[in-house]
Amino acid sequence: MAPVCTACRLSAVFLFVYVLLLTTVIKNINSLLVYDRQTLLDLSFFPPKLVQFRHDGQETPHPLLSEVSVYLCHTSVTFQRRKRRRRRYRGKRGGKLANLKRMLTTCLRRSAVASLDEFGPVHRLFPSRRSLEPVSTWLLPVAGSEQLFQPRGPCSPRPRQRGVNLESLRPLPRASRTINTPAPPPPARFGLVNTRSLANKTFILKDFFASQGLDFLCLTETWLNVGESSAFSELLPPDCDYFNSPRTSGRGGGIATIYKSTYKCLPPSLLVSLSSFELELFELGCSPPVLCAVVYRPPKYNKDFLNEFSGLLAEILLKYDRVLIVGDFNIHVCCPDHTMSKDFLSLIYSFNLVQHVSEPTQERGHTLDLVLTYGLSVSNLVICDAVFSDHMPVLFDITLPCSPCRPPAPARWVRIINPSTAALFSSSFNQTSVIPQSTCSSTDELSSWLHSTCLTVLDAVVPLKSRQPKVKTEPWLNNVTRAARRECRKAERKFKKDKLQVSLQMLKASWCHYQATVKEAKREHLSNVILLNRHKPRVLFSTIDAALNAPKSVYVQPTLETCETFLRFFVDKVNNVRALISPPGFDPSVVVSCPVTFDQFEPVTLSVLYETVKHLKPSGSPSDAIPPRLFKEVITTLGPAVLAVVNGSLSSGVFPRNCKHATVQPLIKKPNLDPSVLSNFRPISKLPFLSKILEKIVYVQLKDFLDENGNLEVFQSGFKSLHSTESALLRVFNDILLATDAGDHVVLVLLDLTAAFDTLDHNILISRLQQLVGIRGTALQWFRSYLEDRTFCVNINNVLSSSAPLLYGVPQGSVLGPLLFSLYLLPLGSILRKHNCAFHCYADDTQIYVPITKKDAHSISPLIKCLEELKIWMALNFLHLNEEKTEVIVFGPSGNSESHPIALGSLTQSVKSTVTNLGVKMDTGFNLDRQISSVVRSSFFQLRQLAKVKSFLSRKHFETVIHAFVTTRLDYCNSLYVGTPHSSLSRLQLVQNAAARLLTGTWKREHITPVLASLHWLPVHFRVRFKILLFVFKSLNGLAPPYLSELLHLHSPSRSLRSADQLLLDVPRTRRKLRGDRAFAVAGPRLWNALPMQVRQARSLNDFKSKLKTHLFSLAFNSV
């Protein structure tokens, strides 16, 4: 106890000296004032108020710290202790000593605070016995700095054990973040899978790609042959593309790579010829580029593998600094003692390649699937369980030197239109919309009022909402397929938990069930689509094409700069074509004014308006106030307002200004073309729906006037009802065959115009309408207003360019455009008739043919003069004739006419032995061998494709698909096959036989005639007869073009005979069986006269078709 008594005696002296020392030193010291952690833990009262606030709200240091440098003022950061420390008991003596120390410390602090009242309430200012310890690095400035701390709000004190209080912590201002360098791109996730038949695991691998978050999936042993791409239509996830290298041998092999379209992948410029392994190369568009190679080496030993692989490495490593090589090498690298493995590992070591797979990748415990890199880092390599095949999938990450080239799609502003939208819109429009009297006199104001009112009402009913683009799911996925997928996930979790072999078998069985379930759901979906659209060939083509071929994504960056680039390209294209034209000084055409005039349009009624809108396709422009589909639903509500705009435009001769702006969307011509070349895109123009309504009404009235007065060109088959490419070719073939039958040669010239619809002049078109058609008054003023002040802009994913004026051409996508272009070409016929040249036009495709007789000494001077005047007229009318694409072919009386006595002069360089005329390949011998070969080749290709979707469809639906894809090819222009040799038609018959066997599953050695009879399919040569007779019936009943009807003449005997009322036709006499007998004017009447009387007397087209097919069917299968 003596030490305790000594401490009690010295406590008063020690206290006095300690306080005196501190009070004298603190005022004069100019040093660093700090508090360590122990001081903050020992003191139990409130934190010091080291910062005072004046009346003006500014912060000042406490007077005690006024003489201390600003940068020397610090405080310590304390932390609350979460656990209460257990008090240590040291016995009776130790407990008394601890209590005495605590009492002394309390007295010391209270006396110190009382002596410093003149400085204000200052707490925890005295250092503890550890105050002389070194200053810790966790001390922070608290006062006198440039950014002083804000005063804390009122908070009740919360004392803690051992003097800890959270109020001793002051909030510190957070430093501003400055990003100097962009964040590195995330690593790309790769997968390597040996599929062993890709076609049987398409939906499984698609789910695997999505669930694992892959960016690249490299597949080996796809077992796909050349031309087989239907599997990728099922496998390809949304916004993904693929490379495919089909197998070269009959067994095994095949490589493919699935990758997200956000990465720019291109085939490299390397040309490698290999025989010991399969290789697929593609290059990632980074800087520097990364070369990726997918390898499959067959398991059979090949002595050339190491040499070829080393040569490949030597070639690619010289050009690329970053290389990734993955694949199934079928080399046991896990057994380095094997000779093949030892040589292979030595080879990759010599090229500084790193092999990252160290675990077995095959069920038998071998490492066969490898990942080799050069200049790239691989991380997170995982080997999954072998579920798809006997190989295990390998997953890994690679940090690429570039980020995905395509940014995420921005949010779009859309309207959510549901079935109740039309009723809500109609109710709101009727309540709030009344046509103001001030706008009734102006068409532009009335149209603008209608646009703004509809937009306001639509904003109130269905306002625009921001929506992120969502990936469209396949329409055949339903609750059944989702339940099958959940079973797969359940089996997968079970296998991961117990790792039993029976669980693995259950997992494999569940995935197989999932694949079969999705295939069945897809089959049902396709069957329903085909059933609903069996009379819509376009829908059938798009549906089956999507099922057979994976879509090729073409990405165009939707930026303002890209839109402006396309805008300048489209404008410059037309300007450059017109710059090549030098208008001459005279017009070689013969202009004959129309004696009949058309002064004004007739106003329409509501019923006519409703009927017009009903038959229009719901296609419009992005600038439409109301979507076209909704517009057609609410036309009864909008009818009076729309009728006011239409009749106001027709009566005033003013086309509404807000209907003159077109939105152009660039569309690539073919998916395999390079999207970086602007000439590979064609402009798709979209006009407002109100503009199409007004144009359709004008078109009907103008067409009736033209038909009534016969102003249209007879030999123009484009954009006309009852006209087609087959009717045009049938007339051309008829004239050429009859001329060659007479012993003459015929020269056929096919002219090609460059951008004809885009370069025509508006003033010339107005003069055509005025002089040749007879349009006057307000009608002519309406057409002038229709062509003036037109503009267009480019739209790429809702990114709009600036507007550019449309100074030339007819508006693309318009209703009146094709008709106006036909009227623009009216003087062309006068030039050709002046030189006695026969011709035929289909839109802007013009063909001229002239018979060259012996009495003219085989001179083609009339044709040369005609072509010269045509060039002058076209230049005068701003039409550019592309002489490089102009083709010439010569037909002779018999045999091959490549050697003919005709001097073609300047046309010699354009002579061809085969030309393509409106989709039909014509040859000099009129054998049509090239055409038949082309049809056979394309038909068999379609049959191979359709065989892949046969399992999806029922027999009835599959027959509909065969007719849409194969029979239409056999029937296209098959009326031209009349009189062709039987050997040529037998090749087409092989296509029909193969289609019948595919549909019915008939064995190839079984006789095909009973099969065709059971299907009610007419053989090919009977289908040719059917088409010829169909044209004859149409020509006799006013359902065919006039140029075909004038070739047929009813037989009228010179005396009264019983054949006078038999509806027989005159059959002209011919000389040559392979020439004149094949002409429509000869073959048609001959086949017609052979029909039974009941067939010739059919009263309607459908009745005639039915009776004709029954008659031909009995002839074809009479012996069956």
UniProtKB/TrEMBL annotation:
Domain spans labelled Reverse transcriptase: 648-922
Task: Show the CDD domains listed in the entry.
Answer: RT_nLTR_like
Coiled-coil spans are none
Top-rank taxon of the source lineage equals Eukaryota
Question: Pfam families, alphabetically?
Answer: Exo_endo_phos, RVT_1
**GO MF term list:** catalytic activity
Q: InterPro entries of this UniProt entry? A: DNA/RNA_pol_sf, Endo/exonu/phosph_ase_sf, Endo/exonuclease/phosphatase, RT_dom
PANTHER family attached to this UniProt entry: REVERSE TRANSCRIPTASE DOMAIN-CONTAINING PROTEIN
Protein name according to UniProt: Reverse transcriptase domain-containing protein
